[in-house]
Write the structure tokens for this entry.
Amino acid sequence: MLNVSKTDYQLARQQILEGIISNEFGIENRDNLGPMIPIRLFQVLRMVALGSNMEDILGQGAPSMVYHSGQSLGTALGQIVAPTADKNLDTYVGKIEHLCRHLSIGLVVPDKVDLKAGILELRVDECVSCAGIHHVSSPICHFEAGMVGGIVKAFFNRNVKATETKCNALGDKTCLIRVDLL
Ligand SMILES: [Zn+2]
């Protein structure tokens, strides 16, 4: 297939997503170092590159951009997983939970699901992004909130608003994401 219209970042994105979905844990060109990285390196990318550096450029708009970025990943993953879930929410959440555990993003646990009210609350225990971070003044996992929102959006095919209402970095021991179906 010719990829002439794709940018290099789009090509990389496609290959990374394919690698995630293939469940293949090994990776090329890491014969000595292997597929794992220290969590602090991930946090540098997440909280510095996709956090404070973004804030340097965008100021108060940074959290929205980070949220958007998370939402686009969540939607992409959700769109790959959804067709395998038989339109069943429990099956879907189970597969997402497995994927998030496999990727060490966190332990996803449904806390409250009220579809009549259009509200889903999902916990992310041991969240990769804010583990070991303290003393922030408000929830800091905008990427993860967006990602969970994107995952829900992909299942219901509806717009959503996701909000992190508890954050481990605030001392809450978990990150709780509330998703409102719009
Ligand atoms: Zn958090």
